[in-house]
Amino acid sequence: MSELLYVPVLQARSHAADAYRWLSPTDQRCIAPLWNLSPRPGTAAPALATEFRKELGSVGEVHRYGAGWIDAPFADETQVAVLADLVDEYCVYGRLRPVTGPDRSALQKAASLETAARSGRPIGIRVRVTGEWDAAMAEAVRSLVARADPGVRVDLLLDMGAVPASRPDAGKEALRALDALYPLAPWREVCVLSGGFPHVTADMLEQGLHEEPRWDWAMWHDVTQSRRPYVPVLRYGDYGAQPADAIAKPPSPQSGGPDWGFLRYTTERTFVMSKILHKGRERNEKLAFNRATARRIVELTSFRGPTAGAAETWLRDLARGSGKTGAFEKWLTVGNAQHMAYAAHMLRRG
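Given the sequence above, the corresponding structure tokens read:
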């Protein structure tokens, strides 16, 4: 069994499942995604079960080499009741692990703890710290851990949420949380999750390539450069090549959408973005524009080349004119696939 290196926080959607599928078996074995079922406000129970089963199915199909966690952080009480049996099925018979947290409802906690006991799999305790650490949270986590079956291992998923430039003390808050939470249980895994990918606007892309610092990666270094005794066992996690709040958005209609999107590429210290067209121009003009967009990325000195993975191969082919442009979901697949492969590489390198 490969050692866990990286925990990407992903939407339980087909484009994210495809990104995970694009990874090599070696990378899949050391990457354990935290999959998030989409919020579906106002959806009636029968349709809800159908939609959630579709999302769970797309995730379950790609977990051949590695495991992951499954969470429904936005489900209300009615939806938790519908979800309980579905999550149980994919944890008992698949490679997924249930997730709960101190801020969840009594029903959600009970259902997740029961699934963990039935499946014999570890349970993830997701603790959100989106601002300052609340010391009262430690007692809530202690109480939740105490309710787990004695035979069930527990994983700490410390979720720092979005970490933009305006949150320079996020590393300090993460350490405060870890100082309080680490002693509470014999954690199987301790993962620190955060998101640094920006919200992209049209004006950001007017000059071609645009770069944004990876503030979440900087926060991780703040944590690991501390001299805390638990640092060697910490695992890195992020929200991939999407903003942290993307998982909170309900699925959008398949048709429509804006005239443009963007390609993403991750370097050691920055996220690189460049505009790509979806519609609004004559076909040949649009293809030429999109191939030029891919060439800007392929010509970066930090571009890792097609041997780095399927995403780089896709970008190279588009730049050469031998690949298809795709649309929003394909661009998300490419962006998350290259990011996950690169994150695993960087963490493996140490």
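The mean pLDDT is 94. Try to locate this feature in the token string yourself.
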